[in-house]
Amino acid sequence: MRQLPANTLLRKPLVIGHRGMPQGTGDENTLASAQAAVDAGADVVENDIYLTSDKHLVIMHDDTVDRTTNGTGRIESMTLAQVKQLRTKVGNREVPTLQEYFSAFKGRPVTHFIELKSSNAGLVAQLKNELDAAGTRDQAVAISFLGDQLKRAGQTLPELSTGLLNSNADASDPQVAVRDILAAVQPYSSTDNPAYGGLSQGAMEAGKHRGITFWPWTVNDQAAFHRLYSWGTHGITTDYAFWARDFPVEI
Ligand code: G3P
Ligand code: CA
Question: Which keywords belong to this entry (predicted)?
Fold first, then answer.
């Protein structure tokens, strides 16, 4: 178990498996990767989504299939049947649909972070259809760097939690930092999802008192994971979900 300073008050953050847990499988954004994250203790699985040309949601990080699969081309120009012909380079696995992912985790206590990767206007409408078909609205959070897409998600699915991904760095004065965070985030989102390097403990403490929740990403440095955990951040997105096993879980 990690040693933390005496009297450190700890609340376990939600551990968010980034693209599942590529460290467990080599493959990102596959059902196997999602399962590896859950097996490692992740509370949340993060998946990136795109809309195929025939309006199915599929899980992939890049806007082309070139890096991760044996195919080439833009994923939003492909039909679902074409996507299903592909195999991942690392594990020879299928590219999953969002529906397949929901089915695999149906009835299990996993929160679904769904990153809206494209500004395609049909993407949010189809997300609503698929959440309803799976009966899993209450387990889903929409996150995105695309503020307008997040706004659309908030209008279409008003009860959904949302998170604005950003790379903003905190001002040195925590109160100024919090003012900046609220101004940047509130038009789009209910949480702040900063790149972890720009997040200071002072801003996070001050922000908590203004009702902000913090979900920094992507924490693949173990010392930073330790630091954020001990600061009491609300959630930590990581490729190494199993690191949380090294830390105390009770306050
Ligand atoms: O959770 C945030 C993180 O997923 C954003 O980065 O590029 O891995 O989608 P990226
Ligand atoms: Ca992502």
Answer: Signal
- Report ipTM for this prediction: 0.98
Residue 125: both structure tokens together? 């409408």
Determine whether the shortest distance from the Cβ of 46 to ligand 1 is under 6 A: yes
Residue 157 tokens, joined = 């699915």
- Per residue in 59-80, pLDDT (tens digit) is 999 999 999 999 999 999 999 9
Nearest ligand, CA of residue 236? 1
pLDDT tens per residue across span 146-176 = 999 999 999 999 999 999 999 999 999 999 9
Show the domain range for 240.
14-163+218-245
Task: Show Cβ contacts of residue 113 under 8 Å, excluding neighbours closer than 6 positions.
Answer: 16, 44, 45, 46, 47, 141, 143, 163, 237
CA of 115 to the centre of ligand 2 (A): 6
Give domain status of residue 127, yes or no: yes
Number of independent structural domains in the chain: 1
